[in-house]
Amino acid sequence: MGIDDWAIAKGHHYGTIVVDLERREPIEVFAGREATAVAAWMRANPSIRVIARDRAGAYSEAADIALPAATQVSDRWHLLCNLRDNVERMLHRLGPQLRRAAQRVNVGGVALGRQGMPRGSALCRWQRLSDERRATRLALYERVMTLHMQGGTMKGIARELSIDHRTVRKFITSSAFPERVRRARGPTPLDAHRRYIEERIAQGCYSPRRIWQEVRQRGYTGCRANVHNCVARLLSPQGKPTSAQAPSPVRTLPCPSARRAFGWLVGWKKLAFNDPKNVDHERFVQALCEIEPVVAEVRSIAREFLGLMHRRRLREFDRWLERLSQCSAPEMRSFARSLRSDLAAVRAAFTLPWSNGQAEGHVNRLKYLKRQMYGRASLELLRLRVLGLN
Q1: Residues in the chain with pLDDT < 50?
Q2: pTM of the model
Q3: Which residues have a Cβ under 8 Å from the Cβ of 23 and sit 6 or more positions away?
């Protein structure tokens, strides 16, 4: 069987879905995901021999109570997610080091960004809104740090400020205010002319209208507002800098988010090997490893774990786990303790073919049925639709 939880009302009430992995179909849906409720269902089905689950402690505890002879299998995808979460937690803590490493990578062109520059009346509306949101988030960060210095706990601060405890943990574990990362933009018709716009700004042309007219002659068919926004991002907050404020001809790599930096560290999504961006990403990783040597150690550990999981090498897992336990990063030592507490199920993930993928798929189907009925169906009606043949 595979077992997973699903949200009846997200953040408030949850249920459990059970899937027969051999027949590839759900066999039960019920309310609650606590160990007592799950253990009661397991006692009524003593023929279960293998239980595939995620890393949730409640399902592990229920299986230990009701079916101690059953083999528990930890889901491989969730193991990789646990690795990613712990590395990201470390990267959140090393926020200033990430920014310093990004500043060492020159990608050419005009300097982008306006953090730390004075606000002006000529800011675009989206720039003013961005600054206001950052000021609100900075005030919240300062309030959290003040309460933390006064001895407040993470959960206590979250209750007092009515925010998620994970936000409080992210603020406290970061060595400085964690800046929001600019969202990656998809391809636009202006991309073919962006280099020309940067060259014109470097030459001293700061008129969006004039640049728009010039790129139209070069074949640009988009609207003028896109050109104006592009020029506004490249120029200073004042909109029209003087010659003394002309932007620097050097552009550094934007500081990546912790999740994006994790992908660069371990080499995920590195499909286009001839893409120049991958060269900049590798230079960023090398700079970060030079600034903070513990990142190089964590990178080696993470890449080795991906290889062990991909090739199912159980014999080398014990040596890797010992190395993980001695890592300099506290987040990785915490990950090692969590693996040791669930060691039998983790070992089974290397040797058995079962996983929790089917259960995750049926949870997705359950959500689809729930939304078809606008979230108003009773649990019994939802159960009949999930388990029914039609």
Answers
A1: 109-121, 237-249, 271-274, 390
A2: 0.70
A3: none
